[in-house]
Amino acid sequence: MQGFRDSATVLSSGQPCDCLPPLRAAAEQLRQKDLRISQLQAELRRPPPAPAQPPEPEARPTIYVVTPTYARLVQKAELVRLSQTLSLVPRLHWLLVEDAEGPTPLVSGLLAASGLLFTHLVVLTPKAQRLREGEPGWVHPRGVEQRNKALDWLRGRGGAVGGEKDPPPPGTQGVVYFADDDNTYSRELFEEMRWTRGVSVWPVGLVGGLRFEGPQVQDGRVVGFHTAWEPNRPFPVDMAGFAVALPLLLAKPNAQFDSTAPRGHLESSLLSHLVDPKDLEPRAANCTRVLVWHTRTEKPKMKQEEQLQRQGRGSDPAVEV
Amino acid sequence: MQGFRDSATVLSSGQPCDCLPPLRAAAEQLRQKDLRISQLQAELRRPPPAPAQPPEPEARPTIYVVTPTYARLVQKAELVRLSQTLSLVPRLHWLLVEDAEGPTPLVSGLLAASGLLFTHLVVLTPKAQRLREGEPGWVHPRGVEQRNKALDWLRGRGGAVGGEKDPPPPGTQGVVYFADDDNTYSRELFEEMRWTRGVSVWPVGLVGGLRFEGPQVQDGRVVGFHTAWEPNRPFPVDMAGFAVALPLLLAKPNAQFDSTAPRGHLESSLLSHLVDPKDLEPRAANCTRVLVWHTRTEKPKMKQEEQLQRQGRGSDPAVEV
């Protein structure tokens, strides 16, 4: 607007004399400059360019970490410890599957506070398959129904009770890893498995009564397994010792864990659907580095708690532990 | 320059007539607009403002985490798990103290790979104070010499074998926390302790035979302790349940742990030098939140390892576990 008023002023001195052309020229120049001014002002209003992004992180496959969990005294401690380890890994999606009748406040709250991309699933282990007090773990392997529930979700059969409800869209590049909540994981392990094409394997520390169990590798191929127990199992590997490419799992819709598999054969019950042992992909420097440990946390003694509770002085039940 | 040429053109049509004033006015307006244009162009050349920084992070006190450790099957697993948790905490300095004759390759390598700011210390527990196989932990509390070694280093008595060798310069704002390598720590705990003025306290989960032990707080002050065992100890708190301001520790050069303290009195042997129980600073929502758990890791069984070793087929000793 400024411009037009200015040029109007200039032309207002309108008696007949030959200075009209230069005045018209001046008015036109004023219009031009007003136009330039408004262009420059518009440029100044333009927001600054966004900062440079890291080179397309979307290109990296997502790691789907499947963790079965059940209520016990150390559950929160274990899940806090694991969730903090997972928070160090980019492009990770945590599938936490409770062995319960419904989602518990402890797990729901922990997931919400974790800052992780997660999906919350729940399935109760059938009574017949549940361990009785004092029964050794191998009588009924734990977490079978829960791991299969996560496979169902990945295959689009739904059932999420919290977090990300939609399964990965068709064609998603990803890898699936079964990470129990009591093992110890080096953050390095996850980058070893990220680019798995079929099934990748590595050693596991402190398992099977050995310092470590793991594949034996020659010329970059798996030629055997270091294990003390039933070396002739189709896949003598621990649950923490392998990862499976998501496209392979989706291409074999019947591949899942068999709760009736004999002791030590649970991993084989899934893997025999998916890969030939000779095609396993060795990771962790040809299986010479231990990046995951089969640690076990002691069950805390609650003798004093029971004594105090009998005296009505037990630990405040309102405090979550 | 543009401006002056324009105005010159306008004034060039110079025959005597009263349109000179408006032409002068036009020339002046053109000068004004040229000025404005050059101002706007200068603004556009100005570099964009730097992105906002977090409010001077140097102002935050440093957290000195003191961790005694000793060689055992689960040592590396425990230290990997702890170091990954500590890597989530800004402004943290890890003082890792080995109970050994000298620095071990396992610990030195782990520290170097941790990415943490650390100081590596070593002191061997005297034979007389060492636990014999099968002796319960309370006969000789573990880690006493190692924690005192860290206090010596903080007080400028040197002795570092790796990492940062210089102690904090006088006047450093900091807090000291004694974090054993087998407990479980929420990352939230460290922000609770960071601004400790004297000695801060909070509950510890799964300790002393209880769901949790911890201070009882009324009107923001510690008025007692929830514990089943010797509630009348001067400070019935677990090693994981308190932190001490660095300036306070430096002001009391004789404050340290007493290896001859009776069972359960080790924490008191340090704290009695430093603070009156009524002046303890309650943290973690007035001691109503559990952010650290006294977890214990099972000692792995090595029966199969021994069998295989007798057959010369033991786990490759070149593989670090």
UniProtKB/TrEMBL annotation, chains A, B:
Its cofactor is Mn(2+). It catalyses: 3-O-(beta-D-galactosyl-(1->3)-beta-D-galactosyl-(1->4)-beta-D-xylosyl)-L-seryl-[protein] + UDP-alpha-D-glucuronate = 3-O-(beta-D-GlcA-(1->3)-beta-D-Gal-(1->3)-beta-D-Gal-(1->4)-beta-D-Xyl)-L-seryl-[protein] + UDP + H(+). It is found in: Golgi apparatus membrane; Membrane. Residues 298-308 have a biased composition (Basic and acidic residues). Glycans are attached at N286. The record marks E213, Q304 as: Interaction with galactose moiety of substrate glycoprotein. Keywords: Disulfide bond, Glycoprotein, Golgi apparatus, Manganese, Membrane, Metal-binding, Signal-anchor, Transferase, Transmembrane, Transmembrane helix. The active site is at E267 (proton donor/acceptor). Its main location: Golgi. Homodimer; disulfide-linked. Interacts with PXYLP1; the interaction increases the 2-phosphoxylose phosphatase activity of PXYLP1 during completion of linkage region formation in a B3GAT3-mediated manner. This is Galactosylgalactosylxylosylprotein 3-beta-glucuronosyltransferase. It comes from Saimiri boliviensis boliviensis.
